[in-house]
Amino acid sequence: MELNNKKTIRAWTYYDWANSAYSLIITSAIFPAYYTAIVPKEIELAGFKILSSSLASYSISFSFLIIALLSPLLSAIADLKKSKKQFMKFFCYMGALACIGLFFFKKNDLGNVNLSWGIFCSVVASIGFCGSIVFYNAFLPEIATKDKQDEVSAKGFAMGYIGSVILMLACLAFILMNEHLDWQLGSLPVRLSFIAVGVWWILFAQITFKALKETQNKFEIQSKNFLTFEYKNLLKVWDNLKQYQKLKKYLLAFFFYNMGVQTVMYMATYFAADELKLETTQLLIVVLLIQLVAIVGAWMLAKISNHYGNNTSLILLVLIWIGICIAAYFIQTVNQFYALATTVGFVMGGTQSLSRSTYSKLLPTTSDTASYFSFYDVCDKVGIVIGTLSFGLIAQMMGSMRNSTLGLLFFFIVGMIFLFQLKGKDKQNGLDMLC
Prior knowledge:
The chain is mainly alpha-helical and 435 residues long. The protein has 16 helices and 4 strands.
């Protein structure tokens, strides 16, 4: 493929447009609200009584455990010539069809919910989404030169945001019309939104698939056991961290505070529906609010970090996250939750973008950046597993998700302790790490 070709780049960004509807509608908005509305607060599973919110948390943990285990394997496969697009298609269609399958997740005439089917489809959709992203990202160096990759990546992010919001607004309009015009369609508009996500994902992905061409790799993996190549690389990165103490401390800090951040992001809608009894439309408004504020927050926090340094900015962000967890325990009204959601949105985008850029700046100049970022990605996924699992366990044992929000304080505090250990200036990279 021709590098920096505008048509190819535009087609590549359409996959962000295609799959980001899953992130917004299935992961963050409509599905969590619908799940909480139709599933009893307490259910019986394998002879044990379990909170439905805890089960949702466990399903997220399980899906990301699978993803964390598969991620290095998929990265190795992505290195093979003439295979990326086929695997990208496989995971795309798997995820999209699982979203469509959620249409059949509902109550029957007797009031029973086919919960197993709903959990199964949500887990498969999550694996399909994350699996396809591995191969989608692998095409970036093949369509853009290094000096253009940040710009191209940003275009993809913008396309994903716009596309997901457009479909979200269309689904929300249909749901609101059903409620306010008394169409008496029951859950049909909500379940049709799941089909819309799957169809949207498949249709717009065709633009990307048509434009992307497999290219000859510049290198070949020499090992016969190439499928274990990336796993060995991860171990090698871990061993190399002994030489880079600042990088190691930062990774530990990221692992803990990101554990809290991701758990809040994945469980916020379930918390609002379960603890505050927010209606579906209120929850969807909250999610849209978070999306809008996140863009502004990422931009403002980038300015702050340029002035005060990365580490100081991250410490400030973690302090705000600690305040969010404490406030979540005490909130009682919808307006209070709106205010809290606005704060989450403000720090959410900034935390994610600043975390990745800080890690990138701390990398040794002679490192294999692909392996180091693969390690970073695994840390992210394992953190989601531990965070969401602990959130569900605390809710189950204590009988309330409010107690789980306080449990997240531990992750943020440990992460902040490691951040405080990053003092002075990184002489190797010139990164201002002043606290």
